[in-house]
Specification:
The protein has 10 helices and 17 strands. By secondary structure, the protein is an alpha/beta fold. The protein has 2 domains: 131 residues, HprK N-terminal domain-like (Udp-n-acetylmuramoylalanyl-d-glutamate--2,6- Diaminopimelate Ligase, Chain: A, domain 1, 3-Layer(aba) Sandwich); 164 residues, P-loop containing nucleotide triphosphate hydrolases (Rossmann fold, 3-Layer(aba) Sandwich), CATH 3.40.50.300. The strands form 4 sheets. The chain has an 8-stranded mixed sheet with strand order 14-11-10-8-9-15-17-16. Helix 7 crosses helix 9.
Length: 311
C-alpha cells in the first residue's frame, strides 16, 4: 500500500514545522495512507459513527479545551474509546499541553504524538500540501528541466544530442536550472505537472568533455530553483532533410505525461542553429499564447484576407 511512515513525515518536516516528540515513539513506523487530516471533535464528544481513524489526528485549542472541561472519569472513557481504533498519530498544535491520560495511552498503544507551535489552520495547510505531493502520481524522464522567463521548459532528446549544452547556455543567459539528466515529475492536479531534480544530483550538470559541474557554485543561487511547473516540451532531434517540419506553427502537438497533455515543439538540430535562443523565443511565445494572442493564427488570418482581396 502506498504511503509515508510517521517517521518519514517527522524527519522531513521536523525543522519547518518545529515538530517535537511527546509520546508513542514506538509508533513511528506506522504508515500514513491518506493525505487528509482529521480533527476528532465529534469523536471526543462520543460520536464515532464516521470516525476517520486512518488519518492524522489534529488536536488544537478547541479539542484540548473540551477535554480539559470533562471530569477525569469521562475523559478517560473517551480517550480509551479513541485509542481502541488503529490510530496513525496525533499532532498537537500551538504548543499546547495534552492531558496526561492521552500521553499515557499513546505510550501504551504505540501511537506517535507530536507537537508543533504552528496554529491549527497553518499546520493543516502545510501537512495537506506535503501529503498531496507524497501521494501524487509520479514518474521520471531523461531530460533537462529549466525555468525560462518563468516558463517550465522540459528539454527531451536522445543522449548526446546537446540538451545539457543548451541548458548551460540558457543558464549563462540568466535562466534557472531545475534538473539535468533525470527529472522527477509529480502530477499535482488533472492539468498540473511539477518537475524537480533528484536530491543526489540536484544543481549538477554533465557536460561531455568537461565533466560534472555545479551550477549553484559556478553561477550563484539565482541560477537554480528547486522545482517548477512543466509548461512546455522541447523535443530536440537530428535534422532530417527528408522530413517536413512545421514552418508556420499552426499545428499544435502535445506530449502526454501522467495523463496530462503538454504542448510540444520539435526542434531539429543542425550546425549554425542557436538552440538556446530558439528555446527562449518558444517560452516567450507560449506566454503570449496564454494571453490569447496566437502569432501563427494572426499571420494566417492576415494572409487569407490579403489573398481574398487580391482575388
Amino acid at each position: 500500500m502506498p504511503g509515508v511512515t510517521v517517521k518519514e513525515f517527522f524527519k522531513e518536516k521536523q525543522a519547518k514545522m518545529q515538530l517535537e516528540m511527546l509520546a508513542g515513539e514506538e509508533g513511528l513506523d506506522k504508515k500514513i495512507t491518506v493525505f487528509d487530516v482529521n480533527r476528532p471533535g465529534l469523536a471526543l464528544s462520543g460520536y464515532f459513527e464516521y470516525f476517520a481513524f486512518e488519518r492524522i489526528q489534529v488536536l488544537g485549542m478547541t479539542e484540548l479545551s473540551y477535554l480539559a472541561e470533562l471530569d477525569q472519569k469521562r475523559r478517560q472513557e473517551i480517550l480509551e474509546r479513541l485509542f481502541s481504533y488503529d490510530l496513525v498519530c496525533f499532532v498537537i498544535t500551538r504548543s499546547l499541553e495534552p492531558p496526561q491520560e492521552l500521553i499515557k495511552l499513546a505510550n501504551e498503544r504505540a501511537v506517535a504524538t507530536l507537537r508543533t507551535p504552528l496554529n491549527t489552520i497553518t499546520f493543516i495547510n502545510e501537512v495537506t500540501t506535503y501529503l498531496e505531493e507524497k501521494f501524487a502520481p509520479s514518474t521520471s524522464v531523461h531530460g533537462v528541466l529549466i525555468d525560462v522567463y518563468g516558463v517550465g521548459a522540459l528539454i527531451l532528446g536522445e543522449s548526446g544530442i546537446g540538451k545539457s549544452e543548451c541548458a548551460l547556455e540558457l543558464v549563462k543567459r540568466g535562466h534557472r536550472l531545475v534538473a539535468d539528466d533525470v527529472v522527477d515529475i509529480r502530477k499535482r492536479s488533472s492539468t498540473l505537472l511539477v518537475g524537480k531534480g533528484m536530491e543526489f544530483i540536484k544543481y549538477h550538470m554533465e557536460i561531455r568533455g568537461l565533466g560534472i559541474i555545479d551550477i549553484r557554485n559556478l553561477f550563484g543561487a539565482g541560477a537554480i530553483r528547486d522545482d517548477t511547473e512543466i509548461d512546455l516540451i522541447i523535443q530536440m532531434e537530428e535534422w532530417d532533410s527528408k522530413r517536413e517540419y512545421d514552418r508556420l506553427g499552426l499545428d499544435e502537438v502535445t506530449y502526454e505525461i501522467l495523463g496530462v497533455e503538454v504542448p510540444k515543439l520539435i526542434i531539429p538540430i543542425r550546425p549554425g542553429r542557436n538552440i538556446a535562443a530558439i528555446v527562449e523565443v518558444a517560452a516567450m511565445n507560449w506566454r503570449l499564447k496564454q494571453t490569447g494572442y496566437f502569432s501563427a493564427h494572426e499571420f494566417d488570418k492576415k494572409l487569407k484576407e490579403k489573398t481574398k482581396k487580391e482575388q
